[in-house]
């Protein structure tokens, strides 16, 4: 009986370790798929509706929600590719600049677009004096969170401070902005891609060691007792 229980626990653990990476991969893919498909979904749904008014059978066939999402996902990917392709040529750059000039004239939208574009551009370049990917003491001194340094500045006394964006997981589009003294940052040798993979996988994909020695209140108390 004890042997059967041992086998049961072993196989259950093996199955869990096999399924969890697949499940995390599926969750990340589902998030990205949903995000990209939502962009073109209204356009595809409208086209299918117009098509269905002329050819009801075809419209009913293409009107399946999963098929609309799939077509919208492919259209969004193709559109992103075409935008990136066009941005490498003079005509494409002029069109993008014209669109940006139009956005700059819209009161609220230009602030959101400008801030987002600035964030994307600073993530591509390492700020002077510090690493891009760091660890900070957040949300408490006993915990560490991954952060992206967006800029380094100084306070009135000349002390260097870093603006650190701390994304949430598994959705890194939301997060917190923390102002942290540079000397309190824990530098890492991670690239932005490695840090994003760690965040999107909820920690399942990442380095085996971290660049700091964890200090736990319980461990300190035990050391004092001995």
Pick out its properties.
7 helices; 5 strands; single chain; alpha+beta; flat; five-stranded antiparallel beta sheet; 57% helix; 226 residues; disordered C terminus
Helix fraction bin: 55-70%
Strand order of the largest sheet: 4-3-2-1-5
Number of strands: 5
Helix/strand/pairing class, anyone? alpha+beta
Which spans of ≥5 residues are poorly predicted at pLDDT below 50? 219-226
The secondary-structure element order is HHHHHEEEEEHH
Shape: flat
Largest sheet: 5 strands, antiparallel
Assembly of the depicted chains: single chain
Could you tell me the strand content as a percent range? 5-15%
Between the first and last Cα atoms, what is the distance in angstroms? Answer: 42 Å
Number of DSSP helical runs: 7
Q: Average pLDDT value?
A: 76
Compute the CA-based radius of gyration.
24 Å
Describe it.
The protein is of the alpha+beta class and 226 residues long. 57% of the residues lie in helices and 15% in strands. The protein contains seven helices and five strands; from the N terminus they run αααααβββββαα. The protein has helices spanning 2-54, 56-62, 65-86, 90-104, 109-122, 192-200, 217-225, and strands at residues 133-137, 144-154, 160-167, 175-181, 186-187. Strands 4-3-2-1-5 form a five-stranded antiparallel β-sheet, with helices on one face. Strand 2 (144-154) and strand 3 (160-167) form a beta hairpin. The chain starts with a helix and ends with a helix.
């Amino acid at each position: 009986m004890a042997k059967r229980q041992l086998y049961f626990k072993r196989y259950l653990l093996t199955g869990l370790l096999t399924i969890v990476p697949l499940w995390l991969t599926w969750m990340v893919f589902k998030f990205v798929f949903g995000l990209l498909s939502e962009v073109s979904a209204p356009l595809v749904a409208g086209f299918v509706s117009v098509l269905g008014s002329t050819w009801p059978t075809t419209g009913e066939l293409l009107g399946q929600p999963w098929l609309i999402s799939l077509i919208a996902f492919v259209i969004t990917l193709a559109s992103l590719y075409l935008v990136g392709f066009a941005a490498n040529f003079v005509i494409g750059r002029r069109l993008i600049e014209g669109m940006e000039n139009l956005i700059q004239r819209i009161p609220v939208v230009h602030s959101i677009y400008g801030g987002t574009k600035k964030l994307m551009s600073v993530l591509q370049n390492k700020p002077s004096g510090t690493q891009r990917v760091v660890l900070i003491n957040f949300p408490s001194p006993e915990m560490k969170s991954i952060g992206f340094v967006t800029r380094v500045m100084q306070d009135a006394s000349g002390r260097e401070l870093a603006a650190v964006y701390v994304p949430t997981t598994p959705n890194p589009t939301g997060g917190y902005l923390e102002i942290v003294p540079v000397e309190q940052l824990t530098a890492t040798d991670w690239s932005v891609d490695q840090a994003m993979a760690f965040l999107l996988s909820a920690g399942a994909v990442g380095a085996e060691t971290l660049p700091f020695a964890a200090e736990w209140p319980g461990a300190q108390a035990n050391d004092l007792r001995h």
